[in-house]
Design goal:
Layout (H helix, E strand, L loop, with lengths): L1 H16 L37 H15 L3 E4 L7 E4 L8 H9 L15 H11 L13 H11 L7 E4 L11 E5 L15 E10 L2 E9 L2 E8 L14 E7 L3
Parallel strand pairs: 1-7
Antiparallel strand pairs: 1-2, 3-8, 4-5, 4-8, 5-6, 6-7
Amino acid sequence: MRCAVLVLLLLAAGCASAPAPAPPPAVKSAADLAPLGPCPASSWKPEAPPPTASAKVSMVLLAVGEWARFGRQVVVYSSDQPPRTEQQGVKEREVPERIHDYWTSVDRPDRSGLDNVPWSAAFISWDIASAGARRDLFCPDSRHTIYVERLVERARRPGAAFIAHRPSERAPRVGDLICATRAGSGTTLDNLNRGAGHCDVVVEVKPGWVAAIGGNVADSVSRSVFPLDGNGFLSPISGRPVFTVIENRLP
């Protein structure tokens, strides 16, 4: 009996000393973070002139060209199934020098496709800067949500070239950016918390689907196909929580 009482006392003491579960971290917003400030200067120059006089068209042509360089990998997304890769392309470790070119556009020449650091934002930055967009209209960055935040801030002033919309407010068009959260970051247009994200450049729109090209998708430059509803808006996408469609107003 004495042993049983001692066991019960020890169990009770253990329960009393167990720490309470920590509350979930509060989702920060851009207002809680240090201001980004103006776009930093850079000495980087595009490797070649834009393909056309239209920066928007050049964005699309450059993205398609890189997709071809990487073997035309295609990834198909749906509303209720995991994404599937329909055609395999060249993987990042096979062409690290090309990914190094993307990193150089965001002033990180120390990086390449061999370091396992996500390079999709460097790809988009390389694409838009190489198309001839001025830095006062688009500021290249190694993180998608940083350049998206700058675009949202820039849109408050006249002459903005990129306007962020909620997915329910903008049917994607060729040249637009489709941006999603990644790794559970919870980024939205309302909080702009600088979490992990991913953006692709829209290159084709057809009834029922939209195709967009981005870097570091299945370890390659891939053409991703997303479903559209009957009104041309993005349907919910399994594995890709889109938080904004960015309208491209470049000439």
